[in-house]
Known about the structure:
The structure is a homodimer. Chain A is α+β, with helices and mostly antiparallel strands. Helices cover 42% and strands 20% of the residues of chain A. The first copy, chain A, has one domain: 3-Layer(aba) Sandwich (Bit1). The first copy, chain A, is built from 4 helices and 5 strands, in the order E-H-H-E-H-E-E-H-E. The first copy, chain A, starts with a strand and ends with a strand. The mean pLDDT of chain A is 94. Chain A binds chain B through residues 3, 5, 12-25, 28-29, 46-47, 49-51, 53, 80, 112-113, and chain B through 3, 5, 12-25, 28-29, 46-47, 49-51, 53, 80, 112-113.
Amino acid sequence: MVIIIRTDLNMGKGKIASQAAHAAVSLYESALKSSNPHLKSWLLSGQPKVILKVDSYNVLISVYDGAKLNNLNACVIRDAGLTQIEAGALTAVGIGPGKEEDIDKLTKTLKLL
Amino acid sequence: MVIIIRTDLNMGKGKIASQAAHAAVSLYESALKSSNPHLKSWLLSGQPKVILKVDSYNVLISVYDGAKLNNLNACVIRDAGLTQIEAGALTAVGIGPGKEEDIDKLTKTLKLL
């Protein structure tokens, strides 16, 4: 599971943490509902989560589009905007669980947050 | 759902985000398994997650003990320690979903991360 966070919104640590938590629960929920074949091994291997960063909306949405095109489990997170940032702003994208090589293809150029 | 992060470990933003994501999935998983009566309303209200901070192991574990004593859904997160911090270190505690007043009793003195 990979979670990608936008840095250009200048979110604080707590806001970033809540967006990552939203993404992780959203991916887990959709993986359960779709009987994702990678879910069991992900659960058994300590539910690994890698947190990456991008510096723009455009890069974030292009990674998400790539994930959907490749039939990966993926989600977008939009903030309710009660604090810090504009309501509805896209803050994060989550991808997985899935084959590591499939996710890597989309995210290998991105840096760790 | 409240997630409490230790600040005394000096974790980076990405590490904090992954600990919060671990806690959120863990709470969601246990809430599903235990048919937590607060799960549905939490899901329908946008799955709110509040990220708080403590500055020591002792405070963190006392909040967790309080949650268990009050029969709240709660989890501890320990880091695999592959990066940044000692393996097995307790990094975060999650509580909820539950009655807001029950969680507030335990966490109202803690500050937002």
